[in-house]
TrEMBL record:
GO terms for molecular function: ligand-gated monoatomic ion channel activity. CDD domains: PBP2_Dsm1740. This is Amino acid ABC transporter substrate-binding protein, PAAT family. Belongs to the bacterial solute-binding protein 3 family. One of its GO terms (cellular component) is membrane. It is found in: Cell envelope. The keyword Transmembrane does not apply. InterPro entries: Iontro_rcpt_C (IPR001320), SBP_3_CS (IPR018313), Solute-binding_3/MltF_N (IPR001638).
């Protein structure tokens, strides 16, 4: 009986020790997670590495080879508010999520639509912008086309960038058309200008910009975007400290009107056009 009481007392002591130790252990784990977060690593490094892919007017190079565009402004302001430098890491869109997961950069800020299939691989911030799919067509090949139904035919060829929501939109809304995929938007536009495809589907405002740039060959058959999608920053899964900072930053700069002002400049004016090659 005496032995049994000793064992019980010993177990009680162990439970009490575990009870005291658990909060300490949990606190250590939380502190370690903070130290290992992308946010803390960027602060220590003094540089925020941003993965992006070029497409007008989100991100592009000016005449001197410097990156400019809406996403460039967003990433530059984000880094400045963190007190660090920004380093842009141009990446092919088709491989941009794998590059993030392998640590080639800290965050994707590249007009990435928030989608459930992507969310299985990365965590998204709250939306900092909304965009939609638009369509620019060849005046001769698509003469008289004025609706999605006009393009949803087997004899119609549509170009889009590989791995984008534009390609998904073509499959969903124009499943009967032939879809041709290219690595970047400039290739799709070149195919359209050469008359090898009827139309290009891409995120607004790229189609409108191309129609204004080449009015003799291209036109906008639809009066407005035919989809709407939220755009967010993408980070590696489980990095909640970084995600919390990004979400709050988006809320702050959105509330002060800065995001709206930058979007107006890049998407609704052509004041920047002279800077581009």
């Amino acid at each position: 009986m005496k032995y049994f009481r000793s064992v019980v007392a010993f177990c009680v002591v162990l439970v009490m020790m575990a009870g005291f130790a658990y909060p300490i252990l949990a606190q250590d784990v939380r502190q370690q997670l903070v130290q290992d977060s992308t946010l803390e690593q960027a602060l220590k490094r003094g540089v925020l590495k941003v993965g992006m892919s070029t497409f007008v007017p989100w991100a592009m190079q000016d005449k001197d080879g410097k990156f400019i565009g809406f996403e460039i402004d967003v990433a530059t302001r984000l880094a400045a508010d963190m007190g660090v430098q920004v380093e842009f890491v141009p990446t092919q869109w088709s491989g941009i999520i794998p590059a993030l997961l392998t640590g080639k950069f800290d965050v994707i800020i590249g007009g990435m639509g928030i989608r459930p299939d992507r969310n299985l691989k990365v965590n998204f911030s709250t939306p900092y912008d909304y965009t939609g799919m638009s369509l620019v067509a060849h005046k001769e090949k698509a003469a008289g086309f004025a609706s999605i139904a006009d393009f949803n035919k087997p004899e119609v060829v549509i170009a889009a960038r590989i791995g984008t929501t534009a390609a998904d939109a073509v499959k969903k809304y124009m499943p009967n058309a032939e879809l041709r995929l290219f690595e970047n938007e400039s290739q799709t536009i070149q195919e359209l200008l050469n008359g090898r495809v009827h139309a290009v589907v891409a995120s607004a405002p790229l189609p409108a910009y191309q129609a204004l740039k080449y009015p003799e060959k291209l036109f906008l058959p639809l009066p407005e975007n035919f989809t709407k999608e939220p755009i967010g920053f993408a980070v590696r899964k489980g990095d909640f400290d970084t995600l919390n900072y990004f979400n709050n930053w988006i809320e702050v700069v959105g509330s002060e009107g800065w995001l709206k002002e930058r979007k107006h400049y890049w998407f609704e004016t052509n004041e920047w056009e002279g800077q581009v090659q």
